[in-house]
Amino acid sequence: MDNHLYTVAQVRAIEEAACAGLPPGTLMRRAGDAAARFALELLGERRDKPVLVLAGPGNNGGDALEVAANLADSGVDATVLFQPGQREISDEAQSAHERARSGTVGFIDMLPPSGDWGLVVDGLFGIGLARPIEGDYREMVEAVNAMRCPVLALDVPSGLDADTGAVIGPGGVAVRATHTITFLGDKSGLHTLDGRDSAGHVRVEMLGVSPELLPPPSARLGTAELFAHRLAARRHNSHKGSFGDVAVLGGAHGMAGAPVLAARGALYGGAGRVFVAMLDSGPGYDSVQPELMFRTADGFDFTGRTLVIGPGMGDSAGAMRLLARALDSDSPLLVDADAINLIGASPDLLARLAGRGAPSVLTPHPLEAARLLGQSTGVIQADRLAAAREIALRTRATVILKGSGSVIAQPDGALVINPTGNAGLATAGSGDVLAGICGALLAQAWPAGEAAIGAAWIHGAAADLLVAHGIGPIGMTAGELPAAARAVLNLLVAEVS
Ligand SMILES: NC(=O)C1=CN([C@@H]2O[C@H](COP(=O)(O)OP(=O)(O)OC[C@H]3O[C@@H](n4cnc5c(N)ncnc54)[C@H](OP(=O)(O)O)[C@@H]3O)[C@@H](O)[C@H]2O)[C@@H](O)CC1
Ligand SMILES: [K+]
User: Fold this and answer.
1) Which positions make up the binding site?
2) Binding of (6S)-NADPHX: at which residues (predicted)?
């Protein structure tokens, strides 16, 4: 399947199984062929420009040498900087080296101070990188990152942990590629944390391996197909009661903006009616969105309503009571922001969450996740998939761990990485809008898992749509997201109808 993600350990197992039935070096030659074809595509009209190929000490370097030989065979001026280590290189890499040496590939010992490269091919390290990149290798990575030309990473951008998306440290560096061709299965680390910045556009090349050799994926990349069956054109004969009520619970004194943004997200996400139940008396209405109905949280009836709790809620005793009441309710519940922090500080609230019968979704950012697990943010970000899965297991809720490549974890351990969105979402209030959109999908009877995957995808796609229209990423505001999310949602519905 296109969206399957594998761990490095799984890819090693796939490699072993595939190699068993093939003559030695076959996979490396196939990798070199596919990557050279991709390189030629990237060069396009600029085939007369020289290509710099960096080849490291392992089989990633072997792939690079195959690419160089192939490019030279295609008439491209390919220059290799081959930096083997102390260890002997593998037989396959040795063959690739001999092949490159026997053709027209040029070899250099150090990078020239400047060069007008049409493309750089990064074959320094792949999935075998075991420690931070240092010394000469580090200088090469830094030099590549200062170049302006396209950079094609082989398998994994050198320096990146293919499982976690973290730059291998401490104090490590990673290539920032414009494109990555990854072999024998897509890898989670290319799509979360630093992965998206490092890998650029990812192409998956299975090297002709039979699908029967593939294990069940460790995670999946989010796609609209994962929730498309929930999208349906609206019947003419429908009314506002047909699409559910969302009530956003929050809004302590001076913090009305967050629940209002969440409520707008819910409204544009298609909820039939949206309430804002404020802890503080706050505003009586939203002049931009007068469709929203304002109430006081005290005594607000939850019956038959989907609840989005936490935006701007604070940590007062009243907030705790409201949260306890929401957790004990039978309503579908989305827990965000301050409500997550309160749960992180209270084993009692955590137990109430874990014991819920109705659908629950939690949307922590990394700091909120850290509070929930009693860890540092660094620990969370070092393995976002593991952190999201752990929170889902402890809370028995669906979790969206936000950040570049949001990770959606289900209580049964299933993981999805959301591929949409951009840096424009790194702005105050965008999480509130996500909470509102997810609340709207829950209110329209989507199960928690699909609501979370769908909301993250739609929210990110909304940001992508805004960027496509020149609105962001710089200066994109959360308030611009709801209408864009509505456009995305309607486009999706039109596609499936
Ligand atoms: N898997 C597959 O199916 C296929 C794999 N293929 C390709 O092979 C790649 C995996 O190859 P790999 O195992 O040789 O690992 P790779 O990433 O080249 O580096 C390991 C080398 O680096 C060294 N080293 C490590 N860290 C270091 C550091 N910080 N600084 C310096 N040195 C360091 C380490 O030696 P060490 O010093 O640790 O003893 C070792 O020599 C994979 O990503 C894909 O591109 C394809 O051919 C198709 C089929
Ligand atoms: K690489």
Assistant:
1) 59-63, 122, 126-132, 137, 155, 158, 258, 312, 365, 402-406, 431-432
2) 59-63, 126-132, 137, 155, 258, 312, 365, 432
